[in-house]
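quick one before i forget lol
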Amino acid sequence: MLVAAAVSPCPPLLVPEVAAGAAPELAPARAACAEALAVLAEARPDLLIVVGPAGEGERGVFPPGSPGNFLGFGVDLGVRLGPDAPDGGDACARPLPAALAVGAWLLAAADWTACPVEGLGVGEPLSPERCAEAGRGLAERADRVALLVMGDGSACRTVKAPGYLDPRAEGFDAVAFRALGEADVRTLAELDAPLAYALKAAGRAPWQVLAGAADGTGLRGRPLYEDAPYGVGYTVAAWS
């Protein structure tokens, strides 16, 4: 059963070594993420699952100890999913998608030791119905399950945004971020997948996995951060 969740944006710029001179710009987001992770730890989960967007070939389950790195972003910095690696280390482990690597970094920064950690990379094409089904499956993985859900809002908030300016972006983010802050499962489940794709909102599928996992649990949400630096919508929330 899902007992808690934390929602975080997933840009590699959250990692100070990647952001370099721009690191202070996302300091409030990092602080909010740390607060959200503290809520997860207080829930005393048996299992934490990090859910985030993943490209083709990166999707699926990642076991405890799966490795990741930020070499693709110009920084030789390795991370590992959770505090412990199983026997055999990295011999057959797939590298984490970027979003899950950011999640692994957040957990390491918070000194996470509360429980084992696994990962799930989900693809943008996954339908809302399949997302909900996946979420229900995650909630059944242990008696007390927590989720760290990585995902960005629209990437079309300004003319300098990765997707340029789209007048629909601000409204989409407002609806999604309110739902995430209030743990409004129904609204999350009904997010428009084609519109999210058009707005380059990488968080849509992970958020709808969360909605499936949380359905019927009665969890309450608390918004901790919202902004759109670089023209991309970022939000942090805690559900408990």
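fyi The chain has eight helices and nine strands.
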